[in-house]
Amino acid sequence: MMNNINRFLAGQTSNNTKISYEIDLRQFFDFVQKTEKEITYGDIYDWKSDMLNKYSSATIARKLTCIKGYFQFLCQMGELPANPAAAIKSPSIKNKEKDYVPMEEAIQLIKVATNPRDKAIIAIYLYSGMRVNELINLSLEQYYNEKIVFKMKGDRERVIYLNEECRKYVDAYIEIRKNSGISNLFVSNHGTPMRADCIAKMLRKVAKQANLEEYITNHSLRHTYVSKICDEYGINIAKDVICHSDISTTQRYAHNKAETIKNVMLNLQLS
Fold first, then answer.
1. Cβ partners under 8 Å of residue 180, min gap 6
2. Among 96, 127, 95, 119, which Cα is nearest to 242's?
3. Closest Cα partner for 139 from 152, 131, 148?
4. Other CB atoms within 10 Å distance of the CB of residue 20
5. Would the pTM of this model clear 0.90, i.e. be above it?
6. Residue 15 and residue 29: Cα distance in Å, rounded?
7. Contact between residue 219 and residue 95 where contact means Cβ atoms under 8 Å apart
């Protein structure tokens, strides 16, 4: 089965898609506990039903797209006579507010985390708003530069600066970092690059320890960071800091606090 999965992933042109699809397939087969040839429409329908209270409609639709594509690939390879996922309908995608944790609550994650690596990962999220794939692929060499540059779509670049407070947590992790010969800054307990699903699992564990009720994801803390920049410096600065091409994207991250609105209205001077 792994050979088929590896072949399917190799055919994806985007590295981000490969990472997401690998996680989706692992989750699916962990759920059904069956081989590819044993999978039925009912198995996939049950998995879809199980996801309804766990993920947004957009995430479910993406995961189902992966499963449909994978079984169609198996049919094309002659491994299956028919695609059991062909008739599965994806949910209508709703414009749902992104998962969001106020910064005052999010900083508790750093305080309660006991593993230096966990503290460093959370700190980088909250001090830079990195995407999970950027964090996973961040190298030691990049970290030691004054500015970290990531290539984006459309030949754009995002430049990230990590302040002293953030670097304090990362430096503490580097002191005990496992030296496994890989260039990635963050290394798993097995000496391999960190995986997105493992980081998400860690965040949920630490959130529980911090008594946070919110469902924490890798994207939650990026949302927290952008919202903080919007609140402190305005949405136009936040757009440039996070390198959004369209300000309407940044607007989805803005959460104006009632106290902020009150202060603006009470302190407005016309002359």
1. 187, 191, 192
2. 127
3. 148
4. 19
5. no
6. 21
7. no
